[in-house]
Amino acid sequence: MHNPNRPLVELIGNIIYNSLKEKVTIVSSPVFLAKISFIKDGKIFIELGDDKKYQAGCRDAKELSAGSYVLASKKGTRLDDGNMADDYLRSDEEYLIVGLEESGIDDESYLGQQAYDLKKQK
Fold first, then answer.
1. Which of 36, 72, 115, 118 is a Cys-bridge partner for 31, taking CB atoms 3.0 to 4.6 Å apart?
2. Which residues contact 20 (CB under 8 A, 6 or more apart)?
3. Whole-prediction pTM
4. Which string of DSSP letters, residue by residue, matches 10-66?
């Protein structure tokens, strides 16, 4: 999910509570929407919507291809698993691809937008 507004956040929270009796909130994630620009000599380059190409690393690059939308974390950020993105990157890579974006993207203005996750409230 990218750029949720307050009414959407409340609606999602209410639907989940009414269905599952779980209180959740939407929290920001260290993940951004990116698009694979090209892959050359085993190096992956992504776009974030700012007309620049960034070199990215990936733990499992076998399913990646140019034009695919991916989720990426910037070097220096802590991932949801507690590790740093740097732990998986070579010195020349600026982003870590953490997954494929599975929903259909029809508007590239979302590139570079931060993703959000659901988190249980205590």
1. 115
2. none
3. 0.74
4. HHHHHHHHHHH---EEEEEEEEEEEEEEEEETTEEEEE-SSS-EEEEEES--TT--T
Is 54:45 a contact under the CB 8 Å cutoff? yes
Rounded CA separation 102/68 (Å) = 10
> How far apart are the C-alpha atoms of 91 and 80, rounded to whole Å?
22
What is the distance between the alpha carbons of residues 118 and 96, in angstroms, rounded to a whole number? 21
19 located within any domain:
no
Q: Tell me: the pLDDT tens digits for 5-63?
A: 788 888 888 898 899 998 888 877 888 999 999 999 989 999 998 889 999 999 776 78
Is 38 a member of any domain? Answer: yes
CA angle centred on 2, ends 58 and 69, rounded to 5°: 35
Residue type, 16: I
Residue-wise pLDDT tens digits, 92-119 = 999 999 988 877 777 677 788 877 777 7
